[in-house]
Task: structure prediction
Amino acid sequence: MELEEAVKARHSVRQYKNKPLDKETIAALQSEIAACNQEGGLHIQLVTNEPKAFDGFMAHYGKFSGVTNYIAMIGKKDGLDEKCGYYGERLVLLAQQLGLNTCWVAMSYSKIKTAFEIGRGEKLCVVIALGYGETQGIAHKSKSINEVVKAEGQLPEWFINGVNAALLAPTAMNQQKFLFTLKENQVFAKAGIGFYVKVDLGIAKYHFEIGAGKENFNWVS
Result:
């Protein structure tokens, strides 16, 4: 499965089968986690066979079941949310390519302190549930391109492809509160106001890169 296919195939899944991750899958995830930590200066950790985090009231209220594996998105506090979104979605799409299902989780879990390590000056941002889903999930409703774009003149095909990919990105409460501004081959991405919008922005930016092709544009901060 190519990344573009994973973007379209991946949907949030909250119910998982009682099936452990095999050694090859764990090794592939750990390798990519190490790469993300190196590139992003993060402290992401994979937690396996740990049922307590998703066995509390909030998890059951959020309709989670069978979750025993998750990725803890951890890092230094400065700029953490957007980084976690960007690199977390990189791991989410790899998981999809490996035949797994995932769900971004901001609040519906319990923090099990013995399951991962948080260093000095670091914090746990969010977690990503993963495993073999009972279903493949369903697509979410999306805004139109015009609702998330600010640009003049005719939009180039690469930009349209990037925005369409971003609109397939998971966001908290499906809020899709991001805006892409285009000027020539320069793109500025801005988060709106709401819960976890910086995490959502990082996720959307990674999707945009996949759809647009990184060779076609430059990010503007």
Notes: The first strand starts at residue 45 and ends at 47.
